Amino acid sequence: MANFNLRKAEPKDVPDILRLIKELAKYEEMEDQVILTEKELLEDGFGDHPFYHCVVADVPVEHQKVEGYSVIGFAMYYFTYDPWIGKLLYLEDFYVMREYRGITRLDATIKSCFLLQTAVKNRCSSMHFIVAESNKASIDFYKRRGASDLSLQEGWRLFRIDKENLLKMSAEE
Amino acid sequence: MEEQVVLTEKELLEDGFGDHPFYHCVVAEVPKDKQSLEGKFNDNIGYTVVGFAMYYFTYDPWIGKLLYLEDFYVMKEFRGYGMGSEILKMLSETAVKTRCSGMHFIVAEWNTSSIEFYKRRGASDLSHEEGWRLYEIDKCNLLKMSSK
């Protein structure tokens, strides 16, 4: 099993975080939809008021499978709020470079241990996240760990009002 | 589902008005008249809070900040006067001012009147278009995972 180190992301990790975000998007054939820049990631994650948090996984030089990259995985999360129960931890994104999957148990470690500790330490009542209904592997992974499908159980659907329509509404008299 | 609300005033105060707010709220108030409903006064003499919206900021790794509308309610007696629209307009202004790429929220699929309200304002159903489903791992299962 390869050695890896799990730690809170630092400003210097921003280029790697964006690289991994783009790799994941490329995997879903949506790389051109990533318009976020390093500058925004830096301001938004490491300013006075972080809008997201990241944990990154890095490997020592001798275990690198892809030359030059020591940061090989990340998870992005933030805190949300349920008006009935209070704080929740929301897992937004999660990715491990293909070359390191399966051999490190990194995914299970990030998800179960690190995020759990963060959730409990911050007095969160549970962890929420969305999964595409077509993503059977992830659904099984989460269900094995006790996840329940709230969309199925409670009928929730995710809606969006995009910027164009927000501007329209804010300009209305 | 009133018994499922376990949140206390103390927690709401700490979580919303401490150094790091975990949520933000806008409230709608009307002038207090002689027939004001008991127990709904606030410090602002002459006004009664009759509606609110709770929101916070989330983050999309492809586009950045989003405004997430968590809860939105206007007391039944005060509906039909455009209060809901005003609240949503204010939230839109907040979203634009804070450079958010959009506003997200969830709606129960049976709540057709809310769905219509939002669709009239340009909302799209991402669960329908992109197949997203909301999942939860509750505290009990989080603890179970950690002890394995």
Automatic annotation (TrEMBL), chain A:
Metabolic or biological pathway, per its Swiss-Prot or TrEMBL entry: Amine and polyamine degradation; putrescine degradation; N-acetylputrescine from putrescine: step 1/1
Subcellular location: Cytoplasm
Pfam families membership: Acetyltransf_1
Major localization listed first in the record, in broad terms: cytoplasm
Tagged with keyword Acyltransferase: yes
GO cellular component, one term: cytoplasm
Gene Ontology annotations of biological process type: putrescine catabolic process; spermidine acetylation
MF terms in GO: diamine N-acetyltransferase activity; spermidine binding
Keywords: Acyltransferase, Cytoplasm, Transferase
Ranges where the N-acetyltransferase domain occurs: 4-172
Record has Transcription regulation as a keyword: no
Catalysed reactions, semicolon-separated: spermidine + acetyl-CoA = N(1)-acetylspermidine + CoA + H(+); spermine + acetyl-CoA = N(1)-acetylspermine + CoA + H(+); an alkane-alpha,omega-diamine + acetyl-CoA = an N-acetylalkane-alpha,omega-diamine + CoA + H(+)
EC number: 2.3.1.57
Family statement drawn from the similarity comment of this UniProt entry: Belongs to the acetyltransferase family.
Subunit comment: Homodimer.
Protein name: Diamine acetyltransferase 1
TrEMBL record, chain B:
Main subcellular localisation: cytoplasm
Keywords from the UniProt entry: Acyltransferase, Cytoplasm, Transferase
Alphabetized Pfam families for the sequence: Acetyltransf_1
Enzymatic class: transferase
GO biological process: putrescine catabolic process; spermidine acetylation
GO cellular component: cytoplasm
Catalytic activity field: spermine + acetyl-CoA = N(1)-acetylspermine + CoA + H(+); spermidine + acetyl-CoA = N(1)-acetylspermidine + CoA + H(+); an alkane-alpha,omega-diamine + acetyl-CoA = an N-acetylalkane-alpha,omega-diamine + CoA + H(+)
Cross-referenced Gene3D superfamilies: 3.40.630.30
Domain N-acetyltransferase: 1-141
Enzyme Commission numbers on file: 2.3.1.57
GO function term, MF aspect, one: spermidine binding
Entry's localization field: Cytoplasm
Pathway per the UniProt entry: Amine and polyamine degradation; putrescine degradation; N-acetylputrescine from putrescine: step 1/1
Subunit architecture: Homodimer.
PANTHER family per the UniProt record, alphabetical: DIAMINE ACETYLTRANSFERASE 1, DIAMINE N-ACETYLTRANSFERASE
The family this protein is said to belong to: Belongs to the acetyltransferase family.
This protein's name: Diamine acetyltransferase 1
Species this chain originates from: Anabarilius grahami
